[in-house]
Write a structure and sequence with these properties.
mainly alpha
Length: 208
């Protein structure tokens, strides 16, 4: 049993440096800080897998506990085919860090002012945290969740810029969300997903 675990660990860490792991951890901390302190408190709707999960829950009454893993598995299955096993290995590390980072920030009271009465500022600030944080993770070859895997796969398949792939998936989900969410809330969500999409692409492309 121990030898099997050792072999699995050796395969997992193959091609992954300490520096890349630390950058992924930093990205996870930045991203989840923004979502926990801004998005969750101001109820800004997400695109991607999270938004699709909320849409399915609203209309089909399927619990997020069931639909979220199904959507993530489908996205990662597509990513395995087009992005390879190394992407899946790094994504295992990054999604673990994202989950642990959420738990970490939940240990503390809110660290930023409540921006519920200033949704435009919340949309911009939240988009910056998510864009920079996820951008750092993707720069190391991983993803923060199934929606990243889907956007990266679409970018590879259709030869689109990454920002365009993110916007495509987010806008489609947000348009579906109009069936149960007021237009004003969708408007601010469009701002945050547009900003985060371009920041992710920019951070990924930095020549450093």
């Amino acid at each position: 049993m121990q030898s099997r675990i050792s072999k699995l660990w050796s395969r997992l860490k193959e091609g992954i440096t300490v520096k890349s792991v630390l950058v992924i951890l930093l990205g996870a901390m930045i991203c989840t800080f923004g979502i926990h302190n801004i998005h969750q408190r101001t109820h800004i709707t997400e695109g991607g897998v999270i938004g699709m999960m909320l849409f399915v829950e609203q209309w089909l009454k399927i619990s997020p506990a069931y639909i979220t893993p199904i959507l993530d598995i489908a996205c990662y299955a597509l990513a395995w085919k087009y992005l390879g096993s190394r992407f899946i290995k790094i994504s295992f590390i990054s999604t673990t860090f994202v989950s642990l980072s959420y738990k970490f920030w939940e240990l503390f009271p809110p660290m930023l002012p409540d921006l519920s009465s200033r949704p435009l500022i919340a949309a911009i600030a939240g988009g910056m945290f998510v864009g920079i944080g996820v951008g750092l993770i993707i720069r190391q070859g991983g993803s923060s969740g199934g929606d990243d895997a889907l956007a990266l796969s679409i970018s590879r398949i259709l030869h689109w810029k990454l920002a365009r792939s993110y916007l495509f998936t987010d806008v489609v989900v947000l348009m579906l969300s109009l069936t149960y969410i007021p237009l004003t809330r969708i408007f601010y969500s469009l701002i945050t997903v547009t900003l985060s999409s371009y920041l992710i692409d920019w951070v990924k492309s930095l020549k450093i």
